[in-house]
Amino acid sequence: xxxxxxxxxxxxxxxxxxHDHSPGDEPAEDAGHWIRNxxxxxxxxxxxxxxxxxLAGSDIIYPPAVPVALIVLAIAQMGVHLVFFLHITxxxxxxxxxxxxxxxxxxxxxxxxxxIWIMDHLTQNMMPMEKMIEMQx
Length: 137
Hints:
By secondary structure, the chain is mostly helical. It folds into two domains: 31-87; 91-137. The chain has five helices and no strands. It has helices spanning 3-11, 31-56, 66-85, 95-125, 129-135.
C-alpha cells in the first residue's frame, strides 16, 4: 500500500464537522452565555463574601484558624473574578492576558516589598529618640 492510498483511507476517519476549530477560533456565543456566566460569577462572589463575614463573626471554626480561612476564601474570590469577570482561561488565545496579569502582579509585589524594605532600613538608620532630645537646645 502506497503512502497516497494510506492517506486516502484515513481521510474518511477525520471529522471535518462543526467541532473542528483551530486555536483562537472560538465558536460564536450568544448573549445568554455571557449573562449566565456573569450571574454565576456574581453568585459565587456573593457566596464567598457571605462566607468570609460569617467565619469572621462567629466561632464556626477554631479561632486561630480564622485568618487562614479568610486567606483561602480571598484566593478563591480572586479566582472567581479572574475566570468569570476577566475571562482569564488556559486557552491559547489568553496567553497575552495571562502574561500581562503576571507582569502586573510582579510590579505590585516589587513596589510593596521595596517600600517595606526601604522603610525598614530608614527606621534602622534613624537616630534614637534619646539622642535627638539631648541635641535640642
